[in-house]
Amino acid sequence: MEKKNIRIKDIAQLAGVSIGTVDRVLHNRGKVSEEALQKVLSTLREIDYKPNLIARTLGTKKVFRIAVIIPDPAQDEYWAQAHLGIQHAAVEWNQYDVKVETYFFDLYHHESFLQLTQAAHVNKPDGIVLAPIFYHEALHFLHQCQASKIPFVIFNTNLPEIHPLSFIGQNLFDSGRVAAELMSLGQTAPGAFTVLHVNEASENSIHLLDKQKGFEHFFKVKNQPDFKISALDINETEENQLQEHLQILLSDAEIKGLFVTTSKGTAAIAAILKKLNRTDIRLIGYDLLPENIQHLQAGTIDFLINQNSRHQTFLGIQHLANYLFLKKEPPATNLLPLEIISRENLNSYLGSALPQF
Amino acid sequence: MEKKNIRIKDIAQLAGVSIGTVDRVLHNRGKVSEEALQKVLSTLREIDYKPNLIARTLGTKKVFRIAVIIPDPAQDEYWAQAHLGIQHAAVEWNQYDVKVETYFFDLYHHESFLQLTQAAHVNKPDGIVLAPIFYHEALHFLHQCQASKIPFVIFNTNLPEIHPLSFIGQNLFDSGRVAAELMSLGQTAPGAFTVLHVNEASENSIHLLDKQKGFEHFFKVKNQPDFKISALDINETEENQLQEHLQILLSDAEIKGLFVTTSKGTAAIAAILKKLNRTDIRLIGYDLLPENIQHLQAGTIDFLINQNSRHQTFLGIQHLANYLFLKKEPPATNLLPLEIISRENLNSYLGSALPQF
DNA sequence: GTGAAAGCGCTAACAT
DNA sequence: ATGTTAGCGCTTTCAC
What we know:
Order of helices and strands of chain A: HHHHEHEHEHEEHEHEHEHEHEHEEH
Keywords (chains A, B): DNA-binding, Transcription, Transcription regulation
CATH architecture of the largest domain in chain A: 3-Layer(aba) Sandwich
CATH superfamily of the largest domain in chain A: Response regulator
Low-confidence stretches of chain A: 353-357
GO molecular function (chains A, B): DNA-binding transcription factor activity; transcription cis-regulatory region binding
Protein name (chains A, B): LacI family DNA-binding transcriptional regulator
Largest sheet of chain A: 6 strands, parallel
CATH class of the largest domain in chain A: Alpha Beta
InterPro entries (chains A, B): HTH_LacI, Lambda_DNA-bd_dom_sf, Peripla_BP_I, SBP_2_dom
Oligomer: homodimer
Mean pLDDT of chain A: 92
Strand order of the largest sheet of chain A: 2-1-3-4-5-11
Domain HTH lacI-type (chains A, B): 6-60
Number of helices of chain A: 14
Number of domains of chain A: 3
Number of strands of chain A: 12
């Protein structure tokens, strides 16, 4: 069964037109008569034409430019990992004439975000990958992009009201349920669990609330009245202050476990729990930050849910590049698995941070 | 910084020879005078030539044939999923002149394996992806391949003494430790856990023993003498017989949990536990087979460790094709993460069975 | 031994 | 609007 692949030349022959015409309809560049158009379209419908990517990239001289806009990797390890995913994707596509330009904004200043997005916009990239940290500014920017017909992919947090080419992230409600499940496992005696939001500006905390709701929902459905669920916002960048808050919370003898909704918060809480030597507290948090990895190995953290920012950005560029290059529509929403990381499977994840393909 | 890439043509010009000559030295096909050789080599040393792989694949007309040898997908859902990974990879590479030929052997008859491998061998494929189920036969076959200089990738179970181009699978010892960790979590009262090997021929059970050892090792290190660990082989294809065996085991009031080392075994044990209504037993097993998924959702199974046979085969072909096509060396051993699947994160895995890229 | 030249499938500029 | 043609960088064949 050596079925030769169909080439543009074949389509042209079948449709009785020239390859130039076929190329024009394939890329709808116009300048094609209604008659020729129909002939080509009908033969296209009959056969399964799959363009030869290799040949396309060789033949074309167009260079696609993708602008990636994320928080400064230096400010936060989570975003440093996101940056790694970008770099990985960038080298992968480099030989295919897709260039990635990165813009780093200040995680704590929306003016910086505003400024960067505008800078990116004037450069007129062919596509944009964005971490929409600042809700209003992001919305404004993305409307601009829609007006300029620049396709965009968003990741990390969803903006369902805008319709991106693709959203990449996790189901945060389910994420909270996973945390709850791990928290409740094998807990027999009555007790209390607290959801901790540590040092999060209100913008982002809308999303963190989803995790909390999922967490609470799990226990509601399970109907286990033996467990008291509470939630607490702590805004203290000073470790000592943070510790004081925590100690008040932990003075309640019923507290059996803590669920921290951010990666950085997880590291902060773990450090304090370790200092206080409270190994009895079950701690569940987010992401494979170096500190979190250590605390997981040491047993201070019991489980991490991996949000895999690295993979998120990687996929973001992947989807966008495939769209620009191959006109392949990505999934409107691409939800990543809620990876449960424990002490024993940690190493197996560290070895293969990125999906080899 | 639009630095043009160096082309063969450039080298030819610099060395004062023709592109044909440059090509000959690049691939050391001989037929080059000592003088020309030196001229080319010296200019090659001066500049950093990176061949354009895109152009290479377009220019070449060689069709690579990859032989994939796995158990009959009809015999076992686990292998059916492996087959899906193959099909996925096959369509991906189809247009790039990499053809995949599959050979299905009988999972229960090594003669069939022997026969199939020989059939594959006489067809002289350019590369082989193999599930080395039958140890001795596999070893013999792979030695043949080495003699014939056919590169091969193995997956699922490792044969460390032979040196494959790449091995794709999981660390089975660690896999057992993960199971143990999940088993012990929150278990306060003393109790007993049993490792179950269900209906496995001795060949394969060598590898299953690794899982058992990892499981035992976890408790040894943890130094929790409160837990009694045992292991049991059950060879009964009849459900009733299997149930009898299990009931004897479960009549021991101390039994708190079971760890089943195979995917099929997991499904079988789960079915019986459900029938016996033993929801008190913590059950940990392998893989997202349809039955296992149901039992996980119903709560009969507490955790599954995903071996992702689909991804394994996909990667196998991926690595081999990249090697043949682009001369890209794959990792000698590619260990997949030990994915922990619970009721709450199950859906997030079902949505994305394969890594999108 | 060596160079010239014809592709590979596609794009894009150029005639018509 | 349509067909022809010259590349893209490399492989491979074929004269010399």
